[in-house]
């Protein structure tokens, strides 16, 4: 009912949204308040938020009440005569002291919660979270598992060529999986500019700062999928680097970790194979569109001067080792892809760049060359 | 020459007259307000619905950055300097500003600064795109080449502000009419005196931080680059040491304007004059020790978090005192609601709402959820738009008859007020909800769950924009063809500025008045 009344209101504004977002039925709309979240800390923070909110409402009722009363009662049009008082030490002291008391009442629970949030000791699991322009890397400390997580919403949805799914801009190719009922500590840092890792349901928001490691933690009781976004302006695609956390029971978590380790072994195995030029080119094109087009653009023309063109690029047409070095190790605004791409993917995308967009070196690269390069051979 | 303005363009280029310079500041700031407003409307048009329709993310970031910079440094600050130029000498019975040639210079470098800033939009790589807070290393290693022009522009703006501030302090401390003791000065003069000290204290810090950026970008230093042994968080500390007092620079003179207007239309003296002065001074002092409340999520040690949380909450106390004093001034008055009063009453109500959300933001653990969301955007617009902008507007309506000798059209003034009031609340109130529901700021696209509030915001923004065109029309019509105003202008007005004829002659108080 309320929902209908509200959309009526929107309609009155001369806009009919219902048709436009018909697809988004399973999206929670008209959200007005902070989430209570799914952890102890998040519920405490929600409590603080509501407490201070109600204090504000109470003060507002008094102040605005007096104002409205006086604006009605003390109008010249209604024959009001102006009084002449203009000082009262008692009043001044009163409205200095009362707010101070309210603040002290608020500050005590806030301090307690803050101490709790800052207690990152004795974690059961450590995850290193690294912000990159514009994706996240998750590394399970001492577990030999690490991967990148980036936006999986297709460009067609963003440019309105396809209907938008319910998790539009809040979906990723690889979710961060954590165990429930475990204290998980996040060690948060960044590789290029400052980002901020924020998941509202966990009430975790911490800046990811290059060269520094910030700590934060969570303890999730219920399995579920919790979505968040980068919360610090980090350049062009700041709005397009979401976070998805999937909390699962410990047993499921262990199984998942094992699968990840096996996948890593499979990648190492794959690096030993030899591919044909056409295979490399085709796979390279896919990698390019997924990882490189955001900056160098789908047509290889880049956005000079910030993002150079690949078409006609001196590096993509020049020394092979310089090219590999640039892609694996980055530099000057170009992110390093050495850890993010598998050797097969790296070999493929480099081969692609050297032979696409009018580049015509004819050269190709095998996964083993990448492995060797990484080992300094 | 000695007794009237020169003819033609040289009048404006060479003028050392505080009234001419005040007018130029005000017109310039209005132009910047429109420019910044256009940038805001580009943002709101893109955010009208989910998806990318009008601009690309790269350009969107340039729009948010330029909007913030132009509004803060181009619209609000010069407008208050303009009001100070016009009113401070007239309120204290001085013939002009203490340093009239410097006054000319501090205005005339501004158009160059902003022309340079605006020109970056046409440069290769585009305009600054790192937010008006320009956090390093996004604004250094990763910045577009135009950042160097941005730095130069900021230097010029800073020089202009510092010169303006020196001038205001020199005027207030040296040129008061006999009998005008400090504690007899109108509150507008007091708030500007304190603001001027804030400016002198923090503009050099801003100059310092952009210079460090310049060194990092061009001269191989690593102040803010961790790879070279520097510290990106240092940038934020230095920036906000400037930045927080800066927000009080934009609001203290507003307190002064409103403290002049409310007593006039309540026909009752300002309640608690002395406590208003002390509250302003305490706010100014506290503003130096709260800067890191903008940095609760950077990972400060807990002692730092607690200190900045407590200090920030403390600021609410003197701010509350001000609000209570205004309300008590209205209480048992004999009120009328002409346009300046409407804007002032709206100021008190809406600024208080902005203060409430500020209080919420001060709770550090809760700030972990609010920080860098639309809740913050709602908060600072509630203090800046109905705060700074409404008070400036109120001041213009209030003193315009004194400046040009003609009365503005009351009906149109009221229409302007209601359009602005409704437009503003439609724009910014829903941002609280979008922010709490989880929408980060500075994003060009968003999930459908934020769509409804954003659509309302965008409609409100265009209404607010339209209201400003009405304002422009009303002011021009008043100057060109308004009805003649009386010297006193308002029934309840008090103060030296109302003792001179309307329009105020080119030179006022050549012989100082006697203040009893
Ligand atoms: C027509 C009225 C206005 C509208 C519709 C408007 C709209 C907006 C919007 C939508 C943003 C958020 C950008 C984002 O985070 O994605 C923004 C940011 C901002 N606005 Fe406004 N605004 C208006 C007036 C003002 C005024 C009068 C001021 C200053 C006195 C101001 C100062 C700022 C600042 C400092 C920012 C932050 C910029 C940044 O993120 O770096 N705005 N504005
Ligand atoms: Cu970001
Ligand atoms: Cu602040």
Helix content of chain A: 40-55%
Overall pLDDT of chain B: 95
For the largest beta sheet of chain B, what order do the strands appear in spatially? 1-2
Structural class of chain A: alpha+beta
Low-confidence blocks of residues of chain A: 1-24
Structural class label of chain B: mainly alpha
What is the helix tally of chain A?
10
Q: Which segments of chain B are poorly predicted (pLDDT under 50) over 5 or more consecutive residues?
A: none
List the ligand species.
Answer: protoporphyrin IX containing FE, copper (II) ion
- CATH class designation of the largest domain in chain A: Mainly Beta
Mean pLDDT of chain A: 88
The number of domains of chain A? 3
Number of strands of chain A: 10
As a percent range, the share of helical residues of chain B equals 55-70%
How far apart are the first and last residues' alpha carbons of chain A, in Å? 69 Å
What percent of residues of chain A are in strands? 15-25%
Write structural notes for this entry.
- The complex is a heterodimer of chains A (377) and B (516).
- Chain A has 377 residues and is an alpha+beta fold.
- Chain A folds into 3 domains: 2-79 and 87-117, no CATH class; 125-157 and 167-252, Cupredoxins -  blue copper proteins (Immunoglobulin-like), CATH 2.60.40; 271-374, Cytochrome c-like domain (Cytochrome Bc1 Complex, Chain D, domain 2, Orthogonal Bundle), CATH 1.10.760.10.
- Helices cover 41% and strands 16% of the residues of chain A.
- Chain A has helices spanning 2-12, 17-20, 40-73, 89-117, 155-158, 250-270, 277-296, 320-329, 343-355, 367-374; strands spanning 125-132, 135-140, 145-149, 176-179, 183-190, 195-199, 204-208, 214-219, 224-230, 242-248.
- Chain A has a 5-stranded mixed β-sheet. In chain A, strands 4-10-9-6-7 form a 5-stranded mixed β-sheet.
- In chain A, strand 1 and strand 2 (135-140) form a beta hairpin.
- In chain A, helix 9 packs across helix 10 (367-374).
- Chain B is mainly alpha-helical and 516 residues long.
- Chain B has a single domain (17-498), classed as Cytochrome C Oxidase, Chain A, CATH 1.20.210.
- In chain B, 67% of the residues lie in helices and 1% in strands.
- Chain B has helices at residues 9-14, 18-46, 57-92, 100-119, 147-174, 187-218, 232-249, 252-266, 273-286, 302-330, 339-362, 364-370, 374-404, 410-436, 451-481; strands at 406-407, 483-484.
- Chain B has a two-stranded antiparallel sheet with strand order 1-2.
- In chain B, helix 8 (252-266) packs across helix 13 and helix 10 (302-330) packs antiparallel against helix 11 (339-362).
- Chains A and B meet through helix 3, helix 4, strand 7 and strand 9 of A and helix 3, helix 9, helix 10, helix 11 and helix 12 of B.
- Bound molecules: protoporphyrin IX containing FE and copper (II) ion (2 copies).
- The site of one copper (II) ion (CU) has 7 residues of chain A, from loops.
- Chain A: It catalyses: 4 Fe(II)-[cytochrome c] + O2 + 8 H(+)(in) = 4 Fe(III)-[cytochrome c] + 2 H2O + 4 H(+)(out).
- Chain A: It is found in: Cell membrane; Membrane.
- Chain A: The chain crosses the membrane at residues 52-72, 93-111.
């Amino acid at each position: 009912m309320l929902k209908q009344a509200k959309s009526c209101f929107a309609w009155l504004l001369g806009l009919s949204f219902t048709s436009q977002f018909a697809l988004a039925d399973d999206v929670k709309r008209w959200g007005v308040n902070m989430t209570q979240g799914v952890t102890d800390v998040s519920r405490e923070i929600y409590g603080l938020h509501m407490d201070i909110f109600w204090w504000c409402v109470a003060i507002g009722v008094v102040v605005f009440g007096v104002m409205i009363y006086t604006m009605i009662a003390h109008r010249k049009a209604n024959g009001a005569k102006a009084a002449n008082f203009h000082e009262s030490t008692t009043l001044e002291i009163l409205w200095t002291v009362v707010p101070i008391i309210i603040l002290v009442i608020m500050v005590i629970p806030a301090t307690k919660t803050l101490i709790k949030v800052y207690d990152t000791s004795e974690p059961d699991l450590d995850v290193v979270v690294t912000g990159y322009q514009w994706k996240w890397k998750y590394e399970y400390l001492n577990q030999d598992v690490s991967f990148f997580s980036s936006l999986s919403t297709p460009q067609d949805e963003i440019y309105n060529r396809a209907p938008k799914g319910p998790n539009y801009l809040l979906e990723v190719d690889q979710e961060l999986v954590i165990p429930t009922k475990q204290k998980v500590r996040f060690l948060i840092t960044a590789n290029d500019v400052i980002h901020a890792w924020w998941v509202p349901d966990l009430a975790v928001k911490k800046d990811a700062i290059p060269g520094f490691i910030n700590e934060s933690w969570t303890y999730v009781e219920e399995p579920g999928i919790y979505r968040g976004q980068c919360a610090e302006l980090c350049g062009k695609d700041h709005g397009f680097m979401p976070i998805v956390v999937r909390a699962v029971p410990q047993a499921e978590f262990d199984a998942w970790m094992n699968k990840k380790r096996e996948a890593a072994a499979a990648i190492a195995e794959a690096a030993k194979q030899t591919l044909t030029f056409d295979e490399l080119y085709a796979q390279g094109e896919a990698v390019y569109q997924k990882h490189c087009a955001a900056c160098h653009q789908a047509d290889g023309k880049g956005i000079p001067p910030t993002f150079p063109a690949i078409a006609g690029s001196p590096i993509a047409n020049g020394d092979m080792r310089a090219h590999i070095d640039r892609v694996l190790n980055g530099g000057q605004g170009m992110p390093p892809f050495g850890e993010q791409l598998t050797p097969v993917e790296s070999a493929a995308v480099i081969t692609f760049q050297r032979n696409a967009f009018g580049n015509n070196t004819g050269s190709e690269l095998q996964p083993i060359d990448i492995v060797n390069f990484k080992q300094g051979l | 020459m000695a007794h009237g303005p020169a003819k033609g363009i040289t009048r404006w280029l060479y003028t050392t007259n505080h009234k001419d310079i005040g007018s130029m500041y005000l017109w310039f700031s209005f132009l910047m307000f429109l420019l910044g407003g256009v940038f805001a409307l580009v943002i709101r048009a893109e955010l009208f619905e989910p998806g990318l329709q009008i601009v690309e993310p790269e350009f969107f970031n340039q729009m948010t950055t330029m909007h913030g910079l132009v509004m803060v440094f181009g619209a609000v600050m010069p407008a208050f300097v303009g009001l100070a130029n016009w009113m401070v000498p007239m309120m204290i019975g001085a013939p002009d500003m203490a340093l009239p040639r410097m006054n000319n210079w501090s205005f005339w470098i501004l158009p160059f600064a902003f022309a340079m800033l605006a020109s970056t939009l046409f440069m290769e790589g585009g305009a600054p795109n790192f937010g008006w807070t320009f956090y390093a290393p996004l604004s250094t290693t990763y910045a577009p080449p135009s950042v160097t022009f941005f730095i130069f522009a900021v230097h010029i703006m800073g020089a202009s502000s510092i010169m303006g501030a020196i001038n205001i302090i020199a005027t207030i401390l040296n040129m008061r009419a006999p009998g005008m003791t400090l504690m007899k000065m109108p509150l507008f003069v007091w708030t500007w005196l304190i603001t001027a000290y804030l400016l002198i204290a923090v503009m050099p810090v801003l100059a310092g931080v952009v210079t460090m950026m310049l060194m990092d970008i061009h001269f191989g230093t690593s102040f803010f680059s961790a790879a070279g042994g520097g510290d990106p968080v240092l940038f934020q500390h230095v920036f906000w040491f400037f930045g927080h007092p800066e927000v009080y620079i934009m609001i203290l003179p507003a307190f002064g304007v409103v403290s002049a207007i409310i007593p006039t239309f309540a026909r009752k003296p300002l309640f608690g004059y002395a406590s208003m002065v002390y509250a302003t001074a305490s706010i100014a002092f506290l503003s130096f020790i709260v800067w890191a409340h903008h940095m609760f999520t950077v990972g400060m040690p807990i002692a730092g978090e607690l200190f900045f949380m407590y200090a920030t909450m403390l600021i609410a106390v003197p701010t509350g005192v001000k609000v209570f004093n205004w309300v008590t001034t209205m209480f048992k008055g004999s009120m009328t609601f002409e346009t300046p009063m409407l804007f002032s009453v709206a100021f008190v109500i809406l600024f208080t709402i902005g203060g409430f959300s500020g209080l919420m933001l001060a709770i550090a653990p809760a700030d972990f959820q609010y920080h860098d969301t639309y809740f913050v955007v709602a908060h600072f617009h509630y203090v800046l738009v109905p705060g700074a902008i409404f008070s400036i507007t109120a001041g213009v309506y209030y003193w315009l008859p004194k400046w040009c000798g003609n009365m503005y059209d009351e009906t149109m003034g009221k229409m302007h007020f209601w359009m602005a009031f409704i437009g503003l609340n439609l724009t910014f109130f829903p941002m609280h909800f979008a922010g709490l529901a989880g929408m980060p700021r500075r994003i060009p696209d968003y999930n459908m769950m934020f769509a409804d509030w954003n659509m309302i915001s965008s409609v409100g923004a265009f209404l607010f924009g339209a209201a400003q065109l009405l304002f422009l029309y009303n002011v021009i019509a008043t100057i060109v063809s308004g009805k003649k105003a009386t010297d006193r202008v308002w029934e309840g007005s008090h103060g030296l500025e109302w003792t001179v004829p309307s329009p105020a002659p080119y030179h006022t108080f050549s012989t100082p008045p006697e203040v009893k």
